Amino acid sequence: MALFPQDLGLPSPEAGVMAVVQALESLYAARGDVLYGESVTQKEHAVQCAALARRAGAGSELVAAALLHDIGHLAGPDDWRAANRHDADGADLLGVYFSARVCEPVRQHAEAKRYLCATREGYFETLSAASRHSLTYQGGVMTPEECRAFEALPHFEAAIHLRLWDDTGKDTDLSGLAFADFRPELIAALQAR
Hints:
It contains 11 helices and no strands. By secondary structure, the chain is mostly helical. It has one domain: Hypothetical protein af1432. Helix 5 packs antiparallel against helix 6.
């Protein structure tokens, strides 16, 4: 499924940074309150992941990636399980607006789960039931050859960080932050392109 900004009510990049930020906020306001197999909504998951990235001292582009990493779910089918390309579709959509420093960690965050299952003892057991289930249609645990190829990717480290925030950002206690609280990072990431 190819995603196009206009299909989601997103403006062209020429519309300006604030128009894109406001459209992203509107998209999450309109579609982000759904559960997707986890105990938190898409919007709350996004905010929690971005808050974890910010707390870790990540730069604005990686915070933006953490905030927007599951945008492919919002743009995809109503049944989140059918959105098995949400990582690639989301990265392609974000590529209209953001640099590879935002898009590639988004593209690689499901692969990072596969990698961590192969390389980090006990990691699989930390995954939520929904993440364990999605691992099966995301390709399963990586082979040693796949691990070496993944490690060679330019945004490998950022993808690993994003994945770990993704795993943690599913707390049923609200983060206390709003999507709009990440405007500074979104603006900086859009301007960095």
